Amino acid sequence: MTSTENSPASHDSAPVAHPMSAVLSMTLCVSMLIASEFMPVSLLTPMAEGLGATAGQTGQAISVSGLFAVAASLLTATVAGRIDRKIVLLTMTTLMLISLVMIALAPNFAVLMSARALLGITIGGFWSLATAVLMRLVPPAKVPQALAIMYTGQALAAAFAAPIGSYLGGLIGWRGVFWVLVPLVVINLVWQFAALPALPARNRLTFANLLGVLLRPYFLRALGAIIFTWGSAFTMFTYLRPFLETVTGVGVTTLSILLLVLGCAGFIGTWLAGKLAGDHVIRLLITPPLIMGAVTLGLLVSGHSLVVVAVLLAIWGAMNTAVSIIWMAWLSQNVDDAPEAAGSLMVAAIQASILLGALIGGVLLDAFGIGATFIGSILMAIAAMLFVGSGRSLLKR
After folding, report:
1. Is 171 a domain residue?
2. What is the tens place of the pLDDT at every residue in 164-191?
3. In a designed cystine with 176, which of 109, 172, 254, 267 is the match (CB 3.0 to 4.6 A)?
4. Domain count across the chain
5. pTM of the predicted structure, to 2 decimals
């Protein structure tokens, strides 16, 4: 891979006519992806009942999307070859639309899993290209701010999708919730078509390019930190509803309020990460696993107190949105010569960790109870902190 391939310094010669509209169209796509991917968290119990499955089994619907996201993140940039990246992104959004319709119509657990697999392809394909595309839409100095704007979509989904999904699920059923998402994705598809400029592929990405980035020692260590950071988060988050129902003893209304608190705190995390990541990214890398692991421990110790749980979930929510911005800012600074390759590998690692987190958490839940699931999350957070260390070993050489 040449030094100019996908480099932030090698922007297209023609400036993007409306970069903010293009960035905002990707922001809405992020919001729809997050809502679609993690809606089963807020609807886990009714979905399990409606499909005749256990809560642990239904949690695997998140796992299967992660499995296919891993494959898609590694294959999208390579298989897509020289296809215009705008066309690739539009294709990913179309697949998300099809997946949502399939979930809403799913007559059984097998169809649900198939639809989630299709969604996984969208997740892996979009995220593997997202940072590299942003680096072509805006000047290098604006990348952290553009990332913060795009990840505002994550904060929006985290703030409103879960509580609204939980509330609407009680009114119109879990299938109705997924039908509500369908027209929003249609709007997003039209907006992307109008706002995104042509993004011709540059030199074709090969598996040799991926291997070259993967074998960089600092990048390989970063992947270890990423896997355990996200694995810790989603071992806990996937099974948050069962914890709140059985330990804290909340009903649907209170559950929705708690999820809203968690999500709204994400706006604070997004703002802080966008403001600080540009100059302090290395110092920030250890913060998410440290704080999120401590929150999970706090929930185990004080989960019976509604007030304490609300405060802890707010802190967790802030870190949940900040972590993505922190790591993608790290990518833009330390793998800026190969953002598509790095993005593909990082998204694969993230999705693999989400898959394993949901899988391990589900097994622990069904076998030993929710306490074991949360302990598993804490152990992963400790492992993530060990990989990050002081952060110096994660700097490019």
Report:
1. yes
2. 887 888 889 889 999 999 999 999 999 9
3. 172
4. 1
5. 0.74
